[in-house]
Amino acid sequence: MSEFLRDAIDLQVQVDAIGLGAIFALMAVGIGLVFGVMRLVNFAYGQLIMAGAFAIAFASERDWPVGVGIALCFAVVLALSLAMERVVFRPLRTQSAAVMLIATFAVAFLLQSIALLWFGPLGKTATSLVQLNRPVEVGGVDIRKITIVAIVTAAVCLVLLVALLNRTSIGLHMRAAAIDAQTARLLGVRANAVSTVSVLIAGALAAVVAVMLTVQFPTVTPTFALQETILVLAGVVVGGMTRLLSATLGGFSIGYVSGVLGGALPSAQSQYLPSLVFGLVILVLLLRPDGLFTRGRGLVERV
Hints:
4% strand
């Protein structure tokens, strides 16, 4: 037990855990933003990340410049996000939450099946960004470049999103739609524009996550980012889905805990990591069913 605690508080483990938490926080922002505006839990979010990762791997195999690969990743993810919103989300907006939830499941499995048919079960390998996985020494600790990039990128994206929500008209409309969609429409908020912008922002964040996950896991398969998405969805619920901030903190928390446990557990016991994480999730939900970072009960402002 003492060895486990010593490994858990090791500075190297802590830094890696914070970096993983930052990536999970970005995923939680994308999921929480769409839920806040559209009341939709998008289970296909992981497949958007997978599509972006395949775009990077596709460019890498053809020795295209890194910038081209990243641009292709953003183009693919944003195009799929827009198609998903126009073809699936918008026509079903007036339907029940259960119908929309099943629709996202269908989209997720459809995208996964297309990837399986197109790229095969073994997938592709992305090597163009592998240099970001190399460590740099900071204060005697070897920190991977991707960890630094993840932390900085997450902070910048969150600041920009807060500025968008608080200082722009479309941000004001998104917040109004999140509080009361029907009243917002009566006051002139354009529901189609708000939902499109929220889905595109979530898609852009998915593309950012795809780039960072591809650095850490260069082998891209049809199940790429699936486990991470399930963990983030659990984190969003644990943090509290009714507010974007609480959902983001929930995503960061579950990423941080996963990183600490993964770094502290011996390699022979790493298969117990999901069980430990979801056991903690159940415990938190039993104690705080409304969310770990929510204040009081009932619905509050979502974004």
